[in-house]
Amino acid sequence: MAWFKRVYGANPLHLLALLGCFALAGAAVLALVPNPSAVTIAIWFAAAVIGHDLVLYPLYALADRSLVLARWARRRVSSRPVTVAATNHLRLPVLGSALLGLVWFPTISGGGADVLAFAAGLPPTVDYVSRWLLVTAALFLASAVVYAIRLGRSAVRERTSAL
């Protein structure tokens, strides 16, 4: 097996898993080919890839980089070291809110009100934007509480180690 790893570069199970993924993707493509909306699905997929990779990824990479640079700048200015980074306490609620907003966008925007009324029996008068904002606020509040607890525990640890 050493010769295989030297030639291929990874474990044979990696090759097997990769071949399985290609087979699954091929089966999905073959299932879509006779479908008349396959071209529409392919256009949507291409637009999603282009929209994410060329537009959204640079934007949230820039936002994340600004968080990391702010942490670095605080470390350079302050004499106290950063014991608990706030970066992940901001990343998680932003990611959760963005994911909920993306998944539920048709309902939040009101575009799927008729379908929702038919499927769930809920009236289209419910304000889903305010509910999404409340969930977003709850995510940030929970993250802030966890951050405050971690800061408190870190301060207690510093005091006990200083004694």
Automatic annotation (TrEMBL):
Keyword Transmembrane helix (UniProt): yes
Keywords: Membrane, Transmembrane, Transmembrane helix
Highest taxon, organism lineage: Bacteria
Sequence intervals crossing the membrane: 41-63, 84-108, 128-149
Protein name in the entry: Lipoprotein
Protein source organism: Actinomycetospora flava
Source lineage: Bacteria, Bacillati, Actinomycetota, Actinomycetes, Pseudonocardiales
